[in-house]
Amino acid sequence: MRRATVVAGLFAALLVAALPAAGASAGGAQSSVVSADPVDWTPNVLDGTVYAVAVVGDEAIVGGDFHRVRSADGDIELTRSGLFAFQLGTGAISASFDPQPNGTVRALAAGPDGTVYVGGSFTELAGGAHHGLARLSVTDGTATAGFTAGIDTGTVLTLATDGSGLYAGGTFGAVGGTARPALARLSTRTGAVDTGFDAAVAQQRSGRLRVSRLALSGTGALGIIGTFTQVGGQSRNQLAVVSAGTGAVRNWYTDAYRPQCNEAYNSYLRDIDFAPDGSSFVVVSTGHQAGPKAMCNSAAKFELAGAGRHHPAWVNRTGGNTLLSVACTGAAVYVGGHQQWLDNPYGDKSAGAGAVSRPGIGAIDPATGKALGWNPTHDRGNGVDVLRTYPAGTGHPGGLLVGSDTEHMGHEYHARIGAFPLS
């Protein structure tokens, strides 16, 4: 063990207690674009896929379906099934945080007092029964006493918190015995369902009803994407904006995602994130259908202001390749997936006129919607599943964490987890 994990955990807890609630956004304000040269200290995940990352103080918590992790220098290799933590700035893997979920971890969100919320398909972790939801101490991985939330069946796919509530989305029908199809707001302390919040998500396009991703604006709005076509009794196809306090559907909608991309996809939206000021958000998608007007395989920015129907402020298309993740920082809109290009509306699994090469990861100008020059490259594989910013801390300037199923980014070996630092 290369550090005093307990001391680091206590430091993280003090930091979190002093900061505003985290977990509302994959992004977070940054004044510049991160470096294209990855840090050298992130550990390596040796198998499976990283699906989720959260930051609590100076600790990064990583979730997925992996089983082995190794320090950056190769000296330490540990069994870590689906969940582990490491220190930002050094990459030191926590020896005491080892909750051992018996299923896949799909979602993470920073909690108060040095804790992290965990969501997924597990039924046990930290030595006890926890059905799809748990709150854990980052110091030692133990379950927080009094947090008793659990879903009936299905999987928790996405989590976020604004300090006053924990928002959970997935394929469940009820939480703690209270019916809340696909979306619920819970007490951050006890996990009890907030009965005053009910978005009434309903009528899936096909397959199972689900909310696959959600994001908080920081200004009272909650954006959700999924298989639904109705929210709060109103027509909302795959994308909706509701009140973060009550779940009431807002008079905001778009028809952009009403057309079908491919019948194999019951939803082709893959991620959503708000700008740091909460004035807009970006949605990324998959699809297969190409063409300059299609919303498949694209990143699209929408302004939150105004009522009624909204059209995208801009759309950046890949030309036939999936985008899976997005993080908005103000300086950039980072997108990840298994794309080969950006600025490619005329491509069909090919580089059309104006296309720029951005394999696996790229950055878009938030104002113009055009690709920025940042081009570190990333193995494509299935794709970059998670992008998460982290703030400056002890011995590091902050940056962007990247989780995936592949082993190289920035032309270097960084297996399944890596980070690009701010300059």
TrEMBL record:
Signal peptide per UniProt: 1-26
Keyword match Signal: yes
Keywords (A to Z) from UniProt: Signal
InterPro entries, alphabetized: Delta_60_rpt, Quinoprotein_ADH-like_sf
Pfam families on file: DUF5122
Domain of life: Bacteria
Name of the featured protein: PKD domain containing protein
